[in-house]
Backbone:
């Protein structure tokens, strides 16, 4: 049986109760949570704010199943532009893992196409940087029992990790239990991927 979730982006930063009641009544089980939609700076939220929000979601029989749009409100954070910005980005993602754990969520999905732009950098160099970057983050977030997933995005959306095979290779090379793959059907369509083949080949990396 499939379990279905919906993103809070669907209703934005408004009184969520009517929407939560509605999606629960339709048999959905989870919320894919974009934290910057709810809070201006998610990592600065208090324990009380996090607890209250988790309790609100769960009072409708729902669960926060993932954090996504992780860097949407942080265009200043970049993976490949400099060591300093990369370090700041890593620190921020680790802080989001702490938030995820507070919300009872064990999964974070990294799309963030603008933040992972490589520009003129050679892919081989970008791969080396990414492998070190994600391995260190994965090690740090393991204490929160949170898994970070890379989301391949088509070359219309991003210039790095554009299909499931590139995503698989990155996960293989990092080889850390807290770093996995997430497939997005829209991006797969834009990349011209075969859904059946992609899911079969990716199954053990998801």
Residues:
């Amino acid at each position: 049986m499939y379990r279905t979730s919906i993103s809070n982006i669907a209703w934005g930063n408004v009184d969520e109760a009517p929407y939560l009641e509605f999606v629960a009544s339709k048999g959905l089980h989870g919320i894919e949570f974009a934290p910057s939609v709810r809070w201006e700076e998610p990592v600065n939220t208090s324990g009380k704010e996090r607890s209250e929000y988790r309790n609100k979601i769960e009072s409708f029989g729902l669960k926060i199943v993932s954090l996504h749009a992780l860097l949407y409100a942080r265009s200043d954070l970049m993976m490949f532009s400099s060591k300093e910005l990369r370090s700041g980005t890593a620190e921020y993602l680790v802080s989001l893992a702490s938030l995820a754990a507070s919300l009872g969520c064990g999964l974070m999905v990294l799309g963030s196409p603008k933040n992972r732009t490589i520009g003129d950098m050679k892919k081989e160099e970008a791969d080396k940087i990414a492998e070190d970057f994600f391995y260190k983050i994965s090690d740090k977030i393991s204490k929160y029992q949170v898994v970070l997933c890379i989301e391949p995005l088509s070359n219309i959306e991003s210039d790095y990790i554009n299909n499931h095979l590139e995503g698989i290779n990155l996960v293989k090379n990092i080889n850390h239990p807290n770093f996995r793959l997430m497939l997005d059907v829209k991006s797969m369509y834009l990349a011209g991927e075969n859904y059946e083949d992609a899911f079969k080949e990716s199954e053990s990396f998801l």
User: Anything to note?
Assistant: The chain has a mean pLDDT of 97. The two ends are 18 Å apart (CA to CA).
